[in-house]
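pinning this so it doesn't scroll away 📌
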Amino acid sequence: MNKRLRNILVGFGIVIVMLQFVQPTRNLGFVEGKEDISKTVDVPLEVKSILQKSCNDCHSNATVYPWYTNIQPLGLWIQHHVDEGKQELNFSTFNLYSPKKKAHKMEELIEMVETNEMPLNSYTWIHKEAVLNEGDKAVLLQWAKATFTSLKAAQ
């Protein structure tokens, strides 16, 4: 191995080791609180169960972190996804949204589930239990459409 390649590999190794000391802020709050979605709309138990297994890790204030999120830069990448997901839709703070934004978020949820964009493939690849089967999709979509209709009517 030539000296330049060896120096590059050693440098890369040092960076990887140093990255292990960088730990992102964890999303370890509560799913349900005074501002969660159930304070705005009825969320049946079956829907809560679907949200818990397929949505809440990225769309609530309570992420369940697997062991591999402690390995950097993987943990930083995953936390970035969680932060983006919460920015798009956060069920834990849904009640803070304006009435118009609540309806719009339900409309987006419907579109994302119907087009199989959510949950993300990169998430379900590892979390097989999060894959929405046809029954889960039907229940979630029926609830989301009814919720959208009621939120739209309330504006």
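📌 and the second one:
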Amino acid sequence: MTVRLPKGEDKNISDSGDMARIMQKVLWRQNRHHRNKEYFWTIGIGPTNDIDYIELVTIGTRNRNILAPVDVFSLAVSKKCTKVIFCHNHPSGKLEPSKSDLKFTDEMERAGAILGITMLDHIIITETDYISIQ
């Protein structure tokens, strides 16, 4: 599902902090109950570092999403987007990436390389903070 950019946000990003701030606003649009689930988004980035799209790929459970490369890269491939950023939230409020987060990031980076898509970053957000795990 494609997600709208929050009002007043510039489509051009310069760093992980810009992307995290935007994605926290996207997360805040969910009601309180739904923010207790783990969301995973893929963000397509254009040649001039503009956001081409934000796609909500899945809504998981309180601490898990199950994704395959086809889920993560399908919109990027269809739009011929060659750069992506991944973002997911940790409802627990803890920013430290899990072993599965790190493994997933590595696997998706390799899958993207096969497709000719560069993974620029993988950001974990909470309602108030973020960390880049790339």
